[in-house]
Automatic annotation (TrEMBL):
One Pfam entry name: GCV_T_C
UniProt key word Transferase: yes
Gene: gcvT
Family label: Belongs to the GcvT family.
Superkingdom of the source species: Bacteria
Record organism: Isoptericola halotolerans
Protein name: Aminomethyltransferase
Amino acid sequence: MTEKKTPLHAEHEALGATMTDFGGWMMPLRYTSDLAEHRAVREAAGLFDLSHMGGIAVTGPDAGAALDHALVGNLSKLRRAGARYTMICADDGGVLDDLIVYRTGEDEYFVVANAANSETVLVALLERAAGFDAQVRDVSARDALIAVQGPRAAQIVREVLAEDSEISGGTAFDELRYYASLGMRFGEEAVLVARTGYTGEDGFEIWVAAPHAVALWRALLAAGEPRGLVPAGLSARDSLRLEAGMPLYGHELDTTTTPYDAGVGRIVKLDKVSDDGTPVEFVGRAALAARAERAPERVLVGLRGTGRRPARAGYPVVQPEAVPSPDGSLGPRVGTVTSGAPSPTLGHPVAMAYVSPEVSAEGTELAVDVRGRAEPFVVVPLPFYRRERG
């Protein structure tokens, strides 16, 4: 299978990026070092190419109603220019993908899916929109997606993009709220700017027509370099999202996991109603309603390492024996690590894991089997890192 390339592929190669396959796309893993790129995002800003993400337009008089039926959230009630984190689930409540949905017009929505799941999401939306006066179109190839993340992101974006009252919906850039969007200009080109991201920092994600992606990338680099901005790859993005306690599909989320299992049951709107007051029977509702009434069989927790060796995805979580076993066993297994790494910001290992409810309380001392050795960890609240808000 030939990997797909984003419109910025040549830029990454020119910057000396190490490239890797990710969801069928050739993407930059790193440009210099994982640590330097991670720290730049926390202290100044990082520039990310996210053009591998899937983009799906849902339009028409019943677009909101179709999404209410297809997804777990109440998208028809989303304000214009707003954004919402949501999920698309199977009939049994398992997560097919986690999404961000933007309302770009009265009858216009833009759905962003993970690269590896974009085809699955597209097919599901097409099936679920049948019977509604709504059109579902794959527009992934139309745009590139560039993110600027970090405490200096607003300064950089403000220098490169211009406000335009005709396409901004009356919102000024300085007034843009978290999980909201507005139209701006890059030269003569209209772009969509959203105050969203996947790093735990303030930042912006910018949709630009693919032919203008290189020019925008270069302009953001030029404006950002004096402020400490660096291009950042997938490796830094993963360590940043882990510190911020954000789930990753294929790790914390999959088809065997419901939103309630992942600790985000709040996004499931079981009480959705249509404009005429009729309850909305969205796909997966019955299973999710039943799951909401049951005690959890497993709980997603944060783990803080008190040693030096990091846990990795798939490693067993065990309950330490009060007295070491003569046979050298590490204790009964009580869970599995879903994501883990050293935290560059905090200076110690962190991990997310699904564990049995009886060992999920904050402060519980556990261990992770790291290649046959019990490494000590303690249960802590998520997220591990929370940015200071000015």
